[in-house]
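Page 47, continued from p. 46.
Same chain as before, 224 aa.
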Amino acid sequence: MVVSQGAGFHGFPAGVIDFYRGLTADNSKSYWSHNKDRYESDVRLPMRMLTDELADEFGRFKIFRPYRDVRFSKDKTPYKTHIGAVTEGEGGEFYYLQVSADGLFVGTGYYQMAKDQLARFRNAVDDVDAGTDLEARLKTMRHKYELHGKELATAPRGYPRDHPRVWLLQHKGLTAGRTFGTPKWLHTRRALSRIAETWRGAAPMNEWLNEHVGPSTEAPDDAP
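Result:
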């Protein structure tokens, strides 16, 4: 399926899954060269059409380049086996989507907090009112979303190991995502509404993060 540039978003063609299955099996310049037209028509163009339509509500998206940075990696395969796009909301939250051979993933939140964000996050989690409020919000989301961002095996320095919200203090980011796989609606315009609904459904978490953490001008830091 090839979508004309003026047609608007009507779903990802079935070819997007086939393209990434092939690339996963043969991540080579030869495969890329022989299938570059498929990448443009079945992968990049639909993603651009989709994000152009989502931009009015969520902001202008960056679509990631397909080439891997292999300079400091032992894995020298040249191409990413997915296409991703991301934007940042005015409050500091991000909105991310990805399509690969495994299908669609949609996520939102604060992926990796900078040092100043992490300090504010921990202070708010430690506060009884703010911390229990976040727990309550996340509880309502657990039946639909996967929560990510836990990186520490114990409480961070300065907090007791038996802290009532230690599981949150162990996070260095906080995101909510949904792995959809390859449902039939991925290849229809309904994909747009399902992605938007997923992001909207995580608003309770994002509203808390924006209020208590907010954006940062610092680079991400590996805090203890």
